[in-house]
Structure formats: C-alpha cells, structure tokens
Amino acid sequence: MKTFRWVIGLILILAFLVFNLVLNISTLQRFINPLLLSCFLCLFRIIRGPSPADRAVAIDTLGILIIAFCGLLAVFTKFDFFIDIAIAWALQAFIGTLALAKYLEGRSFDE
Amino acid sequence: MSETIGMIFIVIGIGFDFFGCIGLIRLPDLYLRLMATAKCVTLGTCSLMFGIFLINGFTAVGIKALLCAVFLLLTSPVSAHALSRAAHKSGVKLCDESVCDEYEKDKN
Amino acid sequence: MKSRIVLFIIAMLVWLILSWSLDWQHLLVGSLASLLVAFLTGDLFTANPYKFAHPHRYLWLMLYIPVLMWEMVKANIDLAYRILHPRLPIRPGIIKVKTKLKSESGLTFLANSITLKPGMTSVDVDQENGYIYVHCVNIKDTDPARATEIIIKRLENILERVFD
Asked: Residue B101's closest chain C neighbor by CA?
C-alpha cells in the first residue's frame, strides 16, 4: 500500500514537471510554479496537522517560502524594493515563530 | 557567465525547497518534519539568495540578498530549537519507530 | 560602557552594508540610530567585551565557516535521499551528548550548528551540567560518550578556541 502511494505521488510530480517545461509560459512562471506547489503542500499540513505544533511548523515554512518568492520577483522584474520586503519579512516571521513557540510552551508573553 | 552560474544556483534552491515541502507531507512525526523544513527549506532559500548575489554582483540588491541569506542562516535554527522544545514540553509524542527518548527519562 | 561601544560599531557596520552608500545624510541617520540602540540595549549585548579584541578568534571563525558549509551540503543531500526513498529509512530518537563549552554564546552557536548538521536537531540545552539533548534521525549509538565522539567533536574543538 505504501509503495503504491509512492508510485502515484511520483507520477503526479513527474506530470507536473513535464507540463511545467512543455507549456508556453514565461521563465518567471516556470520558476514560480514549483514554489506555488510547495505552498499548497504547506497549506495541506496546516489544515490536516494533528497537533498545534505541526501547524506552527507549517506556518514557519510558509514564511521562508514567501522570502524565496520576493527574491525571484526582484531578479526577474528588476524592482529593487522586493529584496527590502524579503529582509523585513524574515525579521517578522522569526519574531512571530518565537511568540508561537512561547505560547505553545505554556508561558506568558511578558516573561 | 556569472548569470548562468546564478541561474543554476536558483534552480538548485527551488529544488531543495520542493523536497523539503514533500518531507513536510511524508514524514511521520513532528520532530522529523521540523528537521526537514529547518534544513532543506533554509538551505534552498539561502542558495537562491546566493544566486541573486551572483547575478547582480556588488550592487545594493546583491549585498542585500547576501545579508538576507546570512540572517536566515542565523535565525532559522533558533526558531527550530524553540519550536521543538515547546512541542516536547506541550506533550507531543515521538513516532512509533523511535528507538529511545533520554529527554523524557531525565525530565522526571 | 565598553559593551556599548562594541555594539555601536557593529550596528554602524550593518547600517553601512544595508544602505550601501557613503552619502552624508545616510551616515548621519545611521549614526543617530546606532547611538539610540547602543544607549538603550548596550548592557544586554555581551558580558565580556574584551573578547572582541583578540584577532585569532576571528581567524578560527573564518576556519569554522567552510567546515559548517560542507556539513550543511552533506546534510541536505542525505535528507533529500531519505525523503525520496520509498521505504523511509529512518531510526529516530532523542539522545544526549556532553559538551565542555561554558560560555552562553558558544553554547548557542553549538546548538545552532547541530541543527544544521546531517540528521540532527537540538531539543534542549542543560547549561549547569553541560548536556545537549539531540533528536537524531539515524541513531548509531545510544551511549552518551560515544555519541559525543561521533557528533560534535570536530565542531566543538574549533568553537572552544573561538568563544572560550
């Protein structure tokens, strides 16, 4: 059963990669599509996750993926301010994750 | 020439991001998922930022991308450490294949 | 006071890298902001500011960075192999290792480097007895002494020269 599911996942990912290379889209879209699929996997974990800590992990991953989006947009559109957004988002996501961890541990915020 | 090498770094980074998110789905346990994201996604994004630095060179955008990569490398293990400790204190169990748990023994 | 001066210099360097221009307006705003930060949070930054004056610490730090980079690349290839394998070859668990580092910044750097090494995440640090609890994906040995030998020996030897 496990091997069967692995084969289905492999076929789906290969089909996604082939469509991503064959379809008539721009280079930016070809680079951004795998990251979008990764974001949907993170959303699956946020919806499905058995414990609150799993959801916190998925939210942290989503923040790092958004930094990658900002870097790609800064390269391909030649706008400089996207990289500033990336640095600010990295700071913000770090502080948010630390606050979530402290809340999960059961302490108050002003400790 | 440096643009081609930068594009290769960007493609490698996107690939490692994708593998990390597949690990987030496949692995059976919170600590293993945390390990996958804290390693693969962090190094993938850092590699992407290094590719941007190689494409732009020593301009404002390139230096900011390099600083962003260094900042990500410094902060991502700290948040992973905080999340794993919080999860263990709030009572998330290890998965069934686990061999030993010394932390649970020493806490009592 | 000395700790505030060190913090002012570091904040000014980060500002110069971020703005990346030598205009006098940038320099004025940057020095004002760095003075404010150094005045407010200077005594929280470091306990012993004389450690910043030794040049051989920076040399050992320069040696430490390529070692850590190589470990990170190995860690990512190893983890990608384990994720994509059909049967998931994992043997996880939490073990404890003993360290001889004493200073807080050294312990922080060691715990962060363990998180970036192949197949490990640091879970908690016990500073009084010098133990680090490590979640390991493929356990070879559960005895603390031999696990220390395998996991942190090389990194610890370099970090001891940098921070202690």
From this structure: C94
